[in-house]
Design goal:
Elements lengths: L1 H14 L2 H17 L3 H4 L1 H8 L14 H12 L2 H14 L2 H26 L2 E2 L5 E2 L2 H8 L5 H14 L3 H16 L8 H19 L2 H30 L4 H14 L12 H17 L6 H5 L7 H29 L2 H4 L5 H11 L4 H32 L6 H15 L2 H43 L1
Antiparallel strand pairs: 1-2
Helix pairs in contact: 1-21, 2-7, 2-21, 4-16, 5-12, 5-16, 5-19, 6-14, 6-16, 6-18, 7-8, 7-13, 7-14, 7-16, 7-21, 8-9, 8-21, 9-19, 9-21, 10-11, 10-19, 10-20, 10-21, 11-19, 11-20, 12-16, 12-19, 16-18, 18-19, 19-20
Length: about 450
């Protein structure tokens, strides 16, 4: 296992090198400049679309704008926000959060382009049903000779969407918050039991298809985000006197890297910190990876630009708001300096320090709902990839592979799971970003048409 662990870690470090940094951040910056900050100029309109002002039940697609966003957010708001931020701070200190912010701002533009393309170039599966996602906008937008790029995305996607990291961290949270404090011995057997319970719950929902997934996500995610907000605000108000100090430290530490414990990058600690922030930011909001376009491509709309604008709100909600709250909770309670915990256990320490009796149990509820809702949505993404590769009539076989991976996630180490998903996520970004940059002129042409029509209404 040690050799496998090291091999996966080396693989993740290799693919998360300079080329990927150029593709994700460089590509995102190109899209911002090329579009003259277009997505940000229509932020108000994006919120109107999300609220349902332009919904039309007769438009093509399966789910509403709001359901598409909550389905996408049910995968992005979760362990990336609670455990991923904790991993970033444990390794990189407060400055890692600054580079996660930069990643999110750039990611907003990336999501606008990728999710607009997901609706502009919807394709059909082998059953004739309309589908969206990178694999379809690659083949429909760039042409059939680009299909190998789409196949590569789907092969990586079938592994990248496996819920092993979420399950691993949920199991760790159950162990650290519920079992160990109450004198229950943690073993392979107890982890396996958690995995089997998750398998049963997930199977009930994912076998019901996208409509059931999106309805469950639309009900669960907003309420848990509100509960999480309230809990973190309690922590911040309790420690209000040190809040300005640590908020400032996020900025100063971003360029000094005083607390960085990871590997240097391009010969410097700040370079390593930037890479860590981008890596954790991409894991959290998934901008440029290609998963969200698969959910947004199913939205009921005849206007691709509308869906792109709604999708753009994802990184803002996910990273700029939820991740920042988690980071500040960890920083103001000082657990990042006084605890050896990592991942979800570090966040739990922050909650337990401020709310000793009930804090960690309320966090446990949020963790459980975030994790379980993401299990539902990730299975949908995997089935979309399987459908493209093997035909819609065979996509259900992916669910069996997916269910087995839940057991694997519950019974293996954090580092192995984190590095595996990190590495494959990086590979998914390559076809997604290359196709998005190539098709960017078509998005801007469509945006010009849409906004000129909007002014006439």
């Amino acid at each position: 296992m040690q050799k496998l662990d090291q091999f996966i870690a080396d693989f993740a470090s290799f693919v998360w090198g300079l080329p990927l940094l150029i593709i994700l951040i460089g590509g995102g910056l190109f899209l911002i400049i090329y579009s003259k900050f277009l997505p940000f100029r229509y932020l108000g309109h994006a919120i109107q679309v999300l609220r349902g002002k332009y919904d039309n039940p007769n438009d093509p697609g399966e789910i509403s704008h709001f359901q598409a966003l909550t389905t996408a957010l049910s995968t992005t708001i979760g362990m990336g926000n609670i455990a991923g931020v904790a991993v970033a701070i444990a390794i990189g200190g407060p400055g890692a959060m600054f580079w996660m912010w930069i990643s999110a701002i750039i990611g907003m533009s990336t999501k606008f382009f990728t999710c607009t393309l997901a609706v502009m170039f919807r394709g059909k599966d082998s059953n004739g049903a309309i589908q969206g996602g990178p694999m379809y906008f690659i083949t429909e937008g760039l042409g059939k000779h680009w299909k190998p790029l789409a196949v590569f995305f789907c092969l990586c996607g079938m592994i990248g969407v496996l819920p092993v990291f979420n399950v691993n961290q949920l199991t760790q949270a159950i162990n650290d918050i519920v079992l160990i404090p109450n004198g229950v011995a943690v073993s392979f057997g107890s982890n396996l039991a958690v995995g089997l319970v998750l398998v049963a719950m997930t199977s009930l929902v994912i076998l019901g298809g996208l409509n059931r997934i999106s309805k469950v996500a639309a009900k669960l995610v907003p309420s848990m985000v509100i509960l999480y907000f309230v809990l973190v605000l309690i922590i911040l108000f309790t420690n209000i006197e040190v809040l300005p100090k640590y908020f400032k430290l996020i900025f100063t530490d971003a360029f000094a890297a005083n607390n960085f414990k990871g590997d240097s990058f391009l010969g410097g600690m700040v370079g390593g910190l930037i890479l860590l922030g981008v890596r954790r930011g991409a894991f959290s909001n998934e901008a440029g990876i290609g998963t969200a376009p698969m959910a947004h491509g199913a939205a009921k709309t005849a206007e691709p630009i509308r869906e792109g604008l709604v999708a753009m709100l994802g990184p803002a909600i996910d990273t700029l708001i939820v991740c920042t709250l988690t980071a500040l909770a960890i920083l103001v309670t000082d657990v990042w300096q006084t605890s050896d915990a990592n991942g979800v256990s570090l966040t739990a320490s922050a909650f337990a320090k401020t709310m000793p009796i009930y804090g960690k149990y309320l966090l446990m509820i949020c963790i459980a709902v975030f994790s379980i809702s993401s299990l539902f949505s990730y299975s949908y993404y995997g089935m979309k990839c399987a459908s493209f590769l093997f035909g819609a009539h065979n996509k259900h076989y992916f669910n069996y592979f997916y269910i087995v991976s839940i057991i694997v996630g519950a019974t293996t180490s954090l580092s192995l799971m984190l590095n595996l998903i990190d590495g494959v996520f990086a590979l998914m970004a390559i076809p997604t970003m290359l196709a998005t940059i190539a098709l960017a002129p078509k998005v801007l042409k469509e945006a010009k048409r849409y906004f000129s029509t909007l002014k006439k209404v």
